[in-house]
């Protein structure tokens, strides 16, 4: 378990937080306890034993979407508050403190390998040994399997030899909820299946899976011995190499929502836009905030399961930034789920691309 | 759990049974989801950005603790919260985003923290009359962002823009970095709505100027929560500027820079940004300019023809004081870094005390005020740096902003009190006013009598008339006892 960096945590705790305007949970709740410095102060007090773990403390420290919005204006370049809060939360497990609302999700992870419960059926597909392994992710499987179908069709149209495995959740939700041991178990099981697949490239559509594979698996000593590529980059590669040839799209006015992880952790803001630019007939109109300055949809850190009301309020706030008559396109199953509110059409990038190919 | 935490300045607290009864009744009025006695919410609203709070935080203490937190969403709910508190004699402290620098929100007598951040809507954007009516809990950067989206600017850019609320600006008579063109917040307020301690709501009309007796809404601008709660304000807005011109100069002496500014203000130029740094701050902020000369940075914006005219006037005035033109790049650098306030966090952890002290005075004693305050601060044992710059300029004078850093050894609080005592004594001796835009809060209240003379008594009588039970933010603005801090 990583140590909390007290110097950086205190830098935040002692700062008036010029990042406050970019903290979605603070802006929708108005609670000082969930402001970046509010959480940093609580975390610092826990470290200094001035505060003991209890449910309200854990709830406040968990009120971080890991959206990295607070990094946009943060003057402390070495500080990653969401990581410090994660490390703080991981220490709570020894005290037996947790969010009661996620108990069923933890059980689901243990029993079915998905926080959403029993999976629809075996997801393994394609030929074992194929070069490309497409990792669908449990959130797409549970909420929006149409994006998986679209990705599979695209891979077939491009003539890519690919396979899918009977995957488990990548482990990200378990760690977010403070159970690193369970996260590690899920990661080990996935790693075994991925290695066994014989693939040399792993493509994932879900940003949380991508971040977990590339950032957390090494921490959990489950390094993957193959190239992990994010969906937008991979499908752009197929477009550039002429393996996909889009025709005129049925969609005209599109507004692209940058998922936080793709935009701020992976720095993938050009790739999705280049894909859209290569589809004839599409007119992209940016929302109020976009690129690396994007704002969270409310789906980060499993908020849709942990804090559904907050997630919905954040999504409403974000939706107000889009042109009312545009189709919203994104590249993350959590963003899609969050932004899919009454009166709005939300699709994933792979679906838009597939419909034009 | 909060009982275990040392609350250094807690003067008193309301009986818990009274708080519990109030919580139950106010919950029935405004909803349980808007009321919290959770120790986490209480701990999180117990302080602002007063350096003393930060020093105590590192020592495991807090200034004082509230007993209940409420989040109203409407003016009516604010009224209900106050009326019930008034009836029960329970203190109420308004809270915005907690960026105040003088302990203005410290709940000396416990009570209710009324967190205004859920009142965060723009109620009306009036294109024809260039007015916006906004709820006071809206974050400053988000306020400006919404205006920009419609082609306007609010013209108010305090360093705390991203961590303060519109209500906080009004409560403290705030100033933004572009104040020379757009004015301080009191120049922008056309009308305000406020709630008195007994729950009475009043609102003045948004007409340009009146001769209908004193504007009572303007009485609340700068009242720091001691008279009531400001809930909405109608503010002036401006179309986004057509042209922006950046310029910087250096002067051999600070006095030359001050005189050049005085002359171009006298001639009618109103650049948005005017900042004149002493040699030490010039070296700190713009190392490439060295630390021997004094830098002036200027930003002029507005209609192109007006900007061009102001530029000509300014160039003539600075040339007359032998300024060296150092180009626009330094202004660009300032624009990029102007909200960065990371030094305090780092220095505090290294054992330093850092604070900023802003005062205001007329041109005739502008330089002598700077010299006197700087010397007074350097004389305090432990002081490592006392530097200053002038900004927020007017035809009649300007605001002086002093930064002081010291490594005082064991007792940081004694050092903190010493630097303030020295600075305020020098400021008052020079005839300058003790604050330009940070306000009074808890700490600066001790010099209010000297600042205002009989005027403070008048303010006290107004306070007693509007808040007869003294529930509104007790001990602030130099009104009421603050025994533990002044001891």
Task: Explain the overall architecture.
The complex is a heterodimer of chains A (357) and B (487). By secondary structure, chain A is of the alpha/beta class. Chain A folds into three domains: 6-97, no CATH class; 125-238, 3-Layer(aba) Sandwich (Rossmann fold), CATH 3.40.50.1860; 245-356, Rossmann fold (3-Layer(aba) Sandwich). Chain A contains 18 helices and nine strands. In chain A, the strands form two sheets. Chain A has a five-stranded mixed beta sheet with strand order 1-3-2-4-5, sandwiched between helices. In chain A, strand 8, helix 17 and strand 9 (346-348) form a beta-alpha-beta unit. The relative contact order of chain A is 0.12. The model of chain A has no long low-confidence stretch (mean pLDDT 95). Chain B has four domains: 2-116, Uridine Diphospho-n-acetylenolpyruvylglucosamine Reductase, domain 2 (2-Layer Sandwich); 118-239, Uridine Diphospho-n-acetylenolpyruvylglucosamine Reductase, domain 3 (2-Layer Sandwich); 243-265 and 276-336, Alpha-Beta Plaits, CATH 3.30.70.3450; 343-439, GMP Synthetase, Chain A, domain 3 (2-Layer Sandwich), CATH 3.30.300. With 487 residues, chain B is an alpha+beta fold. A seven-stranded antiparallel beta sheet of chain B has the order 17-14-16-15-19-20-18, with helices on both faces. In chain B, strands 7-8-12-10-11 form a five-stranded antiparallel beta sheet. A four-stranded mixed beta sheet of chain B has the order 2-4-6-5, with helices on one face. Chain B is globular, with a radius of gyration of 23 Å. In chain B, 55% of the residues are buried. In chain B, a hairpin with a 2-residue loop joins strand 19 (383-394) and strand 20 (397-406). Chain B has 19 helices and 20 strands. The A-B interface holds A 7, 10-22, 26-27, 30-33, 35, 38, 41-42, 44-45, 48, 50-52, 54, 56-57, 59-60, 73, 75-76, 288 and B 1, 4-5, 38-41, 43-45, 49, 54, 57-58, 60, 71, 95, 97-99, 115, 117-118, 120, 137, 139-142, 145, 149, 160-163, 339-342, 344-346, 348-349.
